[in-house]
Design a protein that fits this description.
Helix content: over 70%
Number of helices: 14
Number of strands: 0
Largest sheet: none
Strand content: under 5%
Distance between the termini: 23 Å
Length: 304
């Protein structure tokens, strides 16, 4: 990457608002995103419905640890399935958002596809998660070992040391996350996995990129809160209780809850909220990449 690329700048505010701009300009894609969100939600709900509503009593677990093992064995398939669907779904939706920003002419099916782009983004997502999980594990082990060593030497409480190491680990995870944040749009645009170039491209731009992502997160939270207010009002009007459930509702079979008027409204509104939040959270990375590579002879993308 040459010096001229290093001097390029982007607007953190413009990047953060990319999702709203995409939703406005590519409004014909919204029904497809809503349909994908609805399918995604129904699959996750079906998987999570297999999880028991309450965990075993702690006293019973202390008396017989096998109860906890049996409970974990019971919920593991559903939880692992839900995590797998979430990761695969994230790769598919990310590809659609990147396509809407970087390749706006490929608008068929709301930019949604199932192909090599999605597989590459799935691989990048798994690598990204592996790095962050590895950092968290390293931080946890380091906190235990160092605080234990300090306690052995000083003969005093070392919780502060452990907490400090955990905070440093979280800061390191954020830093690494930001430095690798352009790997996904880079991979999408290049057609092959790009990790190292994300690290190079984000050098010297950590704070603007972090600021753009934090602003996008704040905007997504505003959309979510407004959506939840509408969701609660509609559910209350239909005789439900919004997001929260009463004890009577909690004891009702899952399918009965889902097929009630309030349950159907909750799922539909939640799917719409997700469809609106996706571009707000995902599109900024593609916008930043686009600004930092604009004019390069091999960028291979169209202007949004």
């Amino acid at each position: 990457m040459g010096a001229s690329t290093d001097m390029r700048r982007f607007s953190a505010t413009d990047a953060a608002f990319t999702g709203f701009r995409i939703a406005r300009e590519r409004w014909r894609a919204l029904p497809f995103w809503f349909a994908a969100s609805l399918l995604y939600s129904l699959i996750l709900l079906a998987l999570l419905s297999q999880v028991p509503g309450s965990a075993p009593d702690p006293a019973a677990i202390q008396a017989d640890p096998q109860i906890a093992i049996a409970f974990l064995a019971q919920i593991a398939p559903s939880l692992f399935g839900a995590v797998a669907i979430a990761i695969v779904g994230h790769a598919i939706i990310s590809a659609a958002m990147f396509r809407a920003v970087l390749k706006p002419n490929q608008s068929a099916f709301g930019y949604l596809r199932l192909g090599s782009d999605e597989l590459r983004l799935l691989a990048v997502t798994l690598l990204y998660l592996a790095v962050l999980i590895g950092l968290d594990l390293f931080g946890g082990i380091a906190a235990g070992l160092i605080s234990g060593a300090v306690a052995a030497v000083l003969k005093t409480d070392t919780e502060v040391v452990a907490y400090a190491i955990i905070v440093l680990t979280l800061c390191a995870a954020v830093a690494v996350g930001v430095r690798l944040s352009l790997a996904a749009p880079l991979t999408f645009a290049a057609g092959h996995i790009q990790i190292r170039r994300s690290w190079e491209m984000t050098r010297g731009r950590f704070w603007p990129i972090l600021g753009a992502f934090l602003l996008a997160l704040a905007l997504a939270m505003v959309v979510a809160v407004l959506g939840l207010i509408v969701q609660g009002g509609v559910a209350a009007a239909l005789g439900g209780n919004g997001v929260a459930m009463t004890s009577a509702e909690a004891s009702t079979p899952f399918l009965s809850q889902l097929l009630s008027p309030a349950g159907i409204a909750n799922v539909l509104i939640s799917s719409l909220i997700n469809a609106l939040i996706w571009p707000v959270l995902i599109a900024p990375a593609a916008s930043i990449y686009q600004d930092l590579t604009r004019g390069e002879p091999d960028d291979g993308v169209a202007a949004a």
